Amino acid sequence: MKLKILFVIDSLNSGGAEKSLISLLSLFDYDKYDVDLLMFSRKGLYLSLLPKEVNVLKAPETLGKHQRINLKHLYLKLGNSLSLRNPFYKKFLHSSQINWKWKSQGIKQLDEKYDIAIAYSQGFPTYFVAEKVESTKKYCWINTDYKKASYNKKFDTQFYYQYNNIVAVSESNKEIFIKEMPLAKDKTLVIYDIISPKLVRTMSKQPVAYRDNYKGLKILTIGRLVDVKGYDLAIKACYQLKKEGLNFKWYSIGEGELKPKLEKLVKDYGLEDTFIFLGPHQNPYNYLKMCDIYVQPSRFEGFGMAIAEAKILHKPIISTNFPVVYNQIEDGKNGIIVSMNPKEISQGIKKIITNKELNEKIIYNLKHESMGTENEIYKLYSLIES
After folding, report:
1. Any idea where the Glycosyl transferase family domain is (predicted)?
2. Dihedrals phi, psi of 55, to nearest 5 degrees
């Protein structure tokens, strides 16, 4: 008899966790497991990439959906809206924690009972699986730097206590998490995000043209337009390089809440013809294949998914020095690691442009590095079957 497994994630919009889940589900053994997927938003860039074997559930019902809005429902709606603006809550709680605090009473328990329930990201999915899903075993994923993401540890303790195991996507993530959440020390393990070099290389062969058909040096950054991805640092680094007379264009693939602010920053620096937002793309690999340099200016990452993909396509990489990057990049060997400021980022890029020997050395080393993590799925199978 097949085991019944539930995965829960916020959405399948652009992002490393979302892309990782798609890769995992594309390799899953559906002869052995029945898989349900629950998303709180059924929209997203990667929705069309879901394997047909995955059963997508409707979002859980909330109070008032099939009835008149009663006072309790009104209280929950108003409470959530007001609390997100409340400086006291914003100071001490992560936005996901505020959301759960006010919405949880109005969310119904799932009717189905599962053998395994998996919260595939921290925050709302973790709280939901802990309190609203009945299953024999429960696992949750940590795919961010838990400390820098500013979750309130006291609030989270009650939820992580309910999980059989907690999965970090890197050794660095694990160390940070168990330091912040000591109760999880003996039940936290590492399963790396699943990346398939074959899939990346195949998708990179699809034809594409940068919108402007620019033939010169192309720099690329992939990631959501949010603060942690450090686009403001990238734009300022771009300005410094242009000021030094270098000819290039810097492209960004991604979407996010900071787009208007970042577009204004580009305009303020007079970079409209140099720093170009391409928007979200389901397949960024053909753009990645055609770029000359990949830059990751993040303030923190759980696992540098885009870095791993750039490595597969043998692109010279400049990355800021967030802790987990040292699991992927050895400075001067298969990329360059710089401090988290515009000057250092621009100097790292300049080093790759001007030092042909270093550029060729990095590309050579990347071509001879083992890249795939498909075998990580067997760690998950082992966890499920244990």
Report:
1. 215-367
2. -90, 115
